[in-house]
Design a protein that fits this description.
The protein is of the alpha/beta class. The chain has 2 domains: 126 residues, P-loop containing nucleotide triphosphate hydrolases (Rossmann fold, 3-Layer(aba) Sandwich), CATH 3.40.50.300; 76 residues, no CATH class. 34% of the residues lie in helices and 24% in strands. A 6-stranded mixed β-sheet has the order 6-7-8-3-9-10, with helices on both faces. The protein has a 4-stranded antiparallel β-sheet with strand order 2-1-4-5, covered by helices on one side. The two termini are 29 Å apart. 38% of the residues are buried. Bound molecules: adenosine-5'-triphosphate and magnesium ion. Adenosine-5'-triphosphate binds next to strand 2 and helix 1.
């Protein structure tokens, strides 16, 4: 298996606060890798660095062995990397279908703003994109939300819409920041199935999540952060029994 992403001695400060500290890790192509750790450990900061919203103070991020941290943040989706946000970035006044259509426009040749220039082509393309959006809604088990406005549905369902939008861009690597937050047991089960389906597409999944049962079930590899530092790394059965991880985050209830 090849690695698709890796960091080398990645470091990010916010003033005097060390949010990511000398962090090196690999993510294998086609794998499900979880990043866990206490609140403020630097997990979202890491996603912001990978997706180019923040620039590291030092160290490197490589995607398919090429520098990623030197790219502009708007170039990164076109390289096959999609993400979701812990605090959603969705369009409340649009319908759910339209929100998901936004994910498809990374592939669109005429582009979202060219309608005035080439109306017919745009209309055909828009129809195709709408059909694809519906396809991905069925794929993610949210087709019951068709036709609704985003603001009409609860926050945790909006998160599923955001995940669907990311999946609809057909990324090679997807970063999910707390996808299960606020979901009930049944919804979490559906999400788990969807994550496996995303992986079956060949997509590599990097997930930040506090639902430890979910993390332990789906991850092949877990990286544990604490105050920006990697304190443990390995398969679930190793990480859940790691003394440092038990002490700072998991407690002994997950140990076997
Ligand atoms: N833009 C920023 N400016 C200043 N400090 C920041 C910024 N972003 C994050 N931080 C700080 O960096 C640290 C890491 O934050 P981060 O959001 O990455 O944590 P996290 O692991 O995602 O936590 P949580 O589990 O609560 O989401 C925290 O102390 C946070 O307050
Ligand atoms: Mg976070």
């Amino acid at each position: 298996m090849e690695r698709i992403l890796n960091t080398e001695n990645l470091t990010k400060h916010f003033g005097g606060l060390l949010a990511i500290s000398n962090l090196s890790f690999d993510v294998m192509q086609g794998s499900i890798t979880a990043i866990i750790g206490p609140n403020g450990a630097g997990k979202t900061t890491l996603f912001n660095l990978i997706s180019g919203l923040l620039k590291p103070d030092s160290g490197k991020i490589l995607y398919k062995e090429k520098r990623l941290d030197t790219k502009k943040h708007w170039e990164i989706p076109h390289m096959g990397i999609a993400r979701t946000f812990q605090n959603l970035r969705v369009f409340a006044n649009m319908t759910i279908t339209e929100n998901i259509m936004m994910g498809r426009y990374t592939h669109s040749s005429s582009g979202i703003f060219s309608c005035a220039l080439n109306l017919k082509r745009y209309r055909n393309e828009e129809r195709d994109i709408r059909e694809r959006a519906h396809y991905w809604m069925e794929f993610m088990n949210i087709d019951s939300l068709k036709g609704k406005k985003l603001k009409e549905i609860p926050f945790e369902k909006q998160r599923l819409v955001e995940i669907t939008r990311a999946v609809a861009s057909e990324p090679e690597l997807i970063l999910l920041d707390e996808p299960a937050a606020g979901l009930n047991v049944t919804e979490t089960k559906t999400l788990t199935d969807s994550i496996y389906k995303i992986r079956e597409l060949g997509t590599t999944i990097l997930i930040v999540e506090h639902d430890i049962d979910l993390v332990m079930e789906i991850s092949e590899r877990i990286i544990v952060l604490n105050f920006g530092e990697k304190i443990a790394e390995g398969p679930p059965k190793i990480v859940r029994n790691d003394e440092k991880v038990i002490a700072v985050y998991l407690g002994s209830e997950f140990a076997e």
